[in-house]
């Protein structure tokens, strides 16, 4: 029997955790990575040479690479603050940017580097162009730029992306992304920042259409904690509702949620980093929405930092498959 095809869509740390746990399973993995990041090292590189921001792509490649750990640590090495010229840049970001410039095609650059890094699976930037994230808040105001949007103490109502290289056209995902979604047995959204890691991918029109047409089970892995500037006071059902609203139809089939209680001390420890409190579980609303609910202890606490337990999430995904 051929391996099941699993497409994971998102960005940030959560995406890498899930991919790293799934890569040794008997599945064919494809990671679709957001390209609207404009902060930190990725944002600086994006501004200087106008390439797709490399940070999330770098982390995904490391998560799926089968290279020895010491080689991966070199790829992930971040220059110290006293190195004025390279300050804050990860070596892998610079390598990705260099290959993009050499090939004049970010998608091809990532495929070439995936071969060099012995990546077990596919890594696809959702677009070959660096996209701009835009948001309208509940009060009607509109702002642009991922790192800028989350600084406002206001609830985001809706987001969309624009392609600065295509002034009069809608942004498009690369055809390989659309094909992967159509051919998938399962499409996983998240975990990751709702408005800045997940939605910037799925609101691209041909991605939205592919998600509506695919026969794959579409599973949303809900965040464990709320996030400042994005999801304060939102329940797990609210997260689902926002995703389906941006997809313009009820698309998500399954929601995976954590039900393990978290110590208030751990929550307090995480609050300064933007994680405010555990996402409240609204089981009745989820059931009424018609989705399948997978709830369990998916919590991994390391040094009082809160993550998804990759092994437990992997087992739940494989059971669902």
TrEMBL record:
Matching InterPro entries, A to Z?
CofD, CofD-like_dom_sf, Gluconeogen_factor
Where is the protein localized? Cytoplasm
SUPFAM superfamilies given in the database record:
CofD-like
What is the predominant subcellular site recorded for this chain?
cytoplasm
Q: Which Gene3D superfamilies match?
A: CofD-like domains (3.40.50.10680)
Pfam families noted in UniProt = CofD
Q: Which family does it belong to?
A: Belongs to the gluconeogenesis factor family.
Stated name of the protein: Putative gluconeogenesis factor
Q: What gene name is listed for this protein?
A: yvcK
